[in-house]
Amino acid sequence: MSATLLLYGPTLLAWLAVAYKFPAYRRRRRAPDIRAFWLTLLALALAQTLLLPPIYVALDRLAGIPNLARLLSNGGGVIGCWILLAYLIQLNYPAAEARPRLRRAALALGGALAAMVVLFALAPVRVEDIEFMRRYGDAPFVAEYRLVYLLAIGGAFAVGARLLSRYAGVAGRPLLRDGLRLMALGGAVGLGYVVHEAARVVAERADRPFPVPHPELVTAALGATAAALTVVGATLPACGPRVGLPALYERLAAYRASRDLAPLWQALYAAVPMIALSPPPSWLAEHLSPRDLPFRLYRRVIEIRDGELALRPYIPPGLVEAARGLASAAGVADDDVSAIAEAAGIAAALCARSRGQMPAETATIPLDPGAADLAGEVAILRRVARHYRHSPTVRMVLATLDTEPATGAGHAESKAGLR
Fold it and tell me: How wide is the angle at C-alpha 33 spanned by C-alphas 30 and 34, nearest 5°?
C-alpha cells in the first residue's frame, strides 16, 4: 500500500497542479514566471507518469524499444530542471551576468542529456523490466548512464534550491515567499535523493553492501517528497487564498507578535496597572488561546505606548541620549539604536518608579515617534521588547543608575523587571 501511494500519489498531485495552473498559463503564457512554473510542473508530471508500470510497458510496446520510457522519463526530468533553472537565473541576476550562467547551464544539462542517450543506446537493456536498476545495475554503461543523470539533476537541484531561497528572501507576499521556500526544500530533498541513489549505484558497481535498509523504499520516499514539496510550493501562491491561508497567516503573525511583546507589556502593567483594558491573561490563555488575537495585539500596542507615556517623567535627563551614543558606538543598525535607546528609557523609568523616586514636573524626553500604522508600530515595539530583555547596552545604562553602595547592577536590572 505504501509503495503504491509513493508511486501514484505524487503523480496525481503533479497532474492536479498542472490542471490547476493551466488557466493562468493560458491567460498569461507570455509571463515568464507563469510559463516557467507551469512547464516545470508539466515536465515533472510527464516524467513521473512515464514510470508508472502500465504507462511504462504500454509506451515501450508501442515504440518497440524496451525500457525507452526510462530514458524519456529521465530526459524529461533534466528538461524540467533546465526550464526552472533558466528562469531562476534570469530572475536572480542582471542580464550581463545571467547570459554566461545560462550558457554554462545549457551546456552542462544539454551535454548530460546527449551522454544519457548515447549510454542508453550502448547499454544491453533489450528486455523490458520496470525494475530497471535491479535487473541492469551490473550491465555495461548502465551505471554510467545513471550517474550522468544523477549528476545533472543533482547540480540543478543544488543551484535551484539556492536561487529559490535567495529570491524568497526578497519576496513581498508571504504566500509567494513560503511557496518558494517549499520549492527550495523540495530541491534539498531532491539532492538527498541524488546522493542516496549515487551511493547506491557506486556500491552496486563495486560489489559492496549498501548500508541503508530497504533502499528502494527510501528512493521512492525521497523522490515522492521532493516532487510533492515542489508541486505544493509552485501552487501555494495561487491556491492559498482559496483555502484561507492569508487569514491563518494573519492570526499566526498576531500570535507571534503578541508573544514577543508580552514581557515588555507585563513589566509596564505591573508598574502602571491602569493602562490595561483587562488584566493579564492566564498562562494558558496567553500561550494557547486562539481567540481575539488581532484585537489582543492591537490593545497590547496601545497599552505599551500608554505605559511609556506614563513613565516618561521618571526617565533621568540625558539617559536616552547616552544609550543612543553607546549603541551607535557599538556599531548597531540605526533602527536598533533607536530601539535600544527607547528600551533603556523604559527600563530606567521602571527602576526609578520602583525606588519611589518622584517624577519630574515636565518630561521632555527625546524618544522617537511611533509609526503611522499598526504594522509599523508592532515592528518598532518588537525591537524595543527584544532589546529591553537582552541588550547589554540597556544593562550597562542601568548599572550607571545604581548608586547604592551595597548593591550592584543586578539590583537595577531586577527592579526594571529584566530578570
Answer: 65
